Amino acid sequence: MKKIFLIDDFKAVISDLVKSKKKIGMCHGVFDLLHLGHFRHFEEAKKKVDILIVTVTEDEFVKKGPGRPVFNHLERAECLSSLELIDYVVISNEPSATKVIKLIKPHIYFKGPDYKNNKEDITGNIIKEKKAIKLNKGKIVYTTDRKFSSTVLLKNYINFLSSKQKDSIKRIKEKYNFKEISSFIENLKSVVPTVVGETIIDKYQFTETLGKSAKEPVLVFKKKYFEKYLGGAGAICRHLSSFVNKTNLLSYLGQDNEELNFIKSNLGKKILFDFISKKDSPTIIKERFVEEINNRKIFGAYSLNDSSVSSLEEKSLEKKLSQLLKKSNLIIVSDYGHGLITKNFAKKLITNKKFVAVNVQINSSNIGYHSLQNYKNANCIIINENELRYEMRSKTEKIENLLKLLSKNLNLQFLVVTRGYSGAILYNTKAKKFYYSDAFANKVIDKVGAGDAMLAILALCLYKKIDCDLSLMISSLCASQSVNSIGNKKAISKITLLKELEHYLI
């Protein structure tokens, strides 16, 4: 008899089970490593029901840090199906069990004793699952014996972390416990940031490689489908939404307000936006052609007018900024060098007596022309290593020396450089101290937007005066979330961040 099903394929089976009038029980989890605690859990559950269904979280929704899950969902499902106690195994494509509960409608939903205290569940999933069970006239039963943890066992026997990652975690554990860090992150919601920068539409055109043209030395690709994601300052706002109650966005659109409906639909209710219309300009669209099979970018084509806004448009920006800052306490600037932020407007941003965090991005359209010099006296600037070396005209100088010199030249409080796989360095000029964090990404699908994700969360943390070491680690973990998906398809999740921290620190 077939025991393993995808959730959508299980509908017919559950329909027959309901007709049979048999008592149905359900267990749910990751089950990345089966252990004695699981066996006892299933054994106790099976004694109370006729049919025991175990649902397994699909790989995409497992948030337990680098290297997890160790076993993919098909492997985990196969292991479970080998147990006689279990009648069916269903693979769930949701972060919680709510969807499968609604489908299966179990008479009893079994959870381990560690889930009795709902307040300790940082995801909030158990509360949602309880509601779903109640709606379907079932009940939740907590089994009594679960003395083992897959995460703890795997931590003890498998080395998921590099020595640098372990060092970063060790430093944080010596200073703070998980509850303290959770409290810090929860308190970020009181911040009301205003994000200033170009709103960008990232269009990914997926293709199939056809090969070389028969008539000329040109590679030919077949267009298949495309996806659009909100990038630039809009992406920063989406990242912030998981951490704060309200965000303001000041940006520009093309003269005819192209893409306004798309942008509105992706911003969400927590983001209040104000745009100017830039004359003789399109809304910025950065199109990337991607080979579908391996998600490799082939080339890009940009639609933009990167000339500076007019004096009239600049005055409109200043007026809108003045209104937004009355109800804001933090300014986050993402300057892509596409004409929104003039030298004069940058000065206005810096002199507003608010905490100002800046990312000045060098890209193919502005290299050699875009500089950090407009942001003297900002509180924090974040750039990557290449941008730092372009700015300082130095290819080989030690990074720490460059950070010291640039911080002094620009009179900065904090200067951060990101280094890809090598992590990030934060220099605190007042303390004259460097802080280091390793990169925490276990896989990199797309690096686009990683700097934006880091800027968003780091700005919140530094504004709230969270310890520099901890601020850097938190924002590094958020950047690692960003690179796990194509473009800016997914915004940073506070819940995912807390789950990762919980697994590292407890």
Q: What does it look like?
A:
- The chain is of the alpha/beta class and 506 residues long.
- The protein folds into two domains: 4-157, Rossmann fold (3-Layer(aba) Sandwich), CATH 3.40.50; 182-505, UDP-N-acetylmuramoyl-L-alanine:D-glutamate ligase (3-Layer(aba) Sandwich), CATH 3.40.1190.
- The protein contains 17 helices and 19 strands.
- It has helices at residues 11-19, 36-46, 73-81, 98-104, 125-135, 150-157, 163-175, 178-186, 233-241, 260-267, 311-325, 343-350, 385-392, 399-410, 450-463, 468-482, 494-505; strands spanning 4-6, 24-29, 51-57, 88-92, 108-111, 139-142, 193-197, 199-212, 219-232, 247-254, 271-278, 284-291, 296-303, 330-335, 355-360, 380-384, 414-418, 424-428, 433-437.
- The strands form three sheets. The chain has a nine-stranded mixed β-sheet, sandwiched between helices. The chain has a six-stranded parallel β-sheet with strand order 1-4-3-2-5-6, with helices on both faces. Strands 9-8-12-13 form a four-stranded mixed β-sheet.
- Strand 10 (247-254), helix 10 and strand 11 (271-278) form a beta-alpha-beta unit.
- Helix 9 (233-241) packs across helix 15 (450-463) and helix 15 (450-463) packs antiparallel against helix 16 (468-482).
- The radius of gyration is 25 Å and the shape is globular.
- The mean pLDDT is 89.
Supply database-style keywords.
506 residues, alpha/beta, Rossmann fold, UDP-N-acetylmuramoyl-L-alanine:D-glutamate ligase, 9-stranded mixed sheet, 6-stranded parallel sheet, 17 helices, 19 strands, globular
